[in-house]
Amino acid sequence: MAVVEQVKKLTSQGTTMAVVEQVKKEYDNCAVNYNDYSSLPFGQLESQLIKIALGDCAGLTVLDLGGGTGRYALEAIDLGAAIVDVVDISPGMLKIGHEIEKSLSRENTIRYFEADVSKPLSHLPLHENGYDVVMANWIFSHADSMEVLEGMFRNVVGYLKPGGRFVGVRDSNPTSPAILNAKYGAMYKWVKKIPGGVKFLVMLSCTPPIEFEGAALEIIYSGSTEMHERFGLTDVEVVPYESTEVVQKDPEFWKLFLERPNLAVVKASKKME
């Protein structure tokens, strides 16, 4: 039996979708301090990996699913993107993004929309002809069932132009020692098994600390490309950690992480029609 079918069978036996209002509440509560994550070791590594994955964005249109305050939307603009549309479930996070754009005296360079990225987004004024790049950073860490995960992939691929680039951060190894202590600025305070995957409580070492619950399915954190390929993504690859400046400058510091990485930045392309 294919991994997808195995997980479907398990998740249909009682695991329900994450409660939308709870997710909103958690991210609204941490919205003000969330960008502090970028100063933590994990945040620096993640940012550099995403920048490498995005590459040259000159003149491109970008959709950032689960983009929060627009941290990586701003990165895409710095890399040359013409416009970025951010979709996120947290009004608190989106408000901060709006405020950043306002402070820059820009209009319609980065647009912010509130929605659940696991559900159809046809009610939003997104680009009908699709986007050159679709980002989905950490959204799969809120997929506790195949139904939710499939909804996310439908939006990723549905809004990506043929030949377009996908970039996303995902969980890699939820039992990695690198995430079971706070050496790199983030840790799981607990990890529990759920059908087809795990649920966990994340703590980010911001000031004050940020906590929120997440969930990930094995079909994602195992490194399987089955879901990507099933929805029409090809050339799926993980950006090498050693390609980042932070790892190159201090490989000894990153040794524990590199032995069993707990996060991965993935890039892929949508098949040409």
TrEMBL record:
Gene3D superfamilies: Vaccinia Virus protein VP39
InterPro entries referenced in this protein's UniProt entry, alphabetically: Methyltransf_25 (IPR041698), SAM-dependent_MTases_sf (IPR029063)
GO molecular function: methyltransferase activity
A Pfam family the protein falls into: Methyltransf_25
Annotated ranges, domain Methyltransferase: 62-164
Name of the featured protein: Methyltransferase domain-containing protein
High-level lineage: Eukaryota, Fungi, Dikarya, Ascomycota, Pezizomycotina
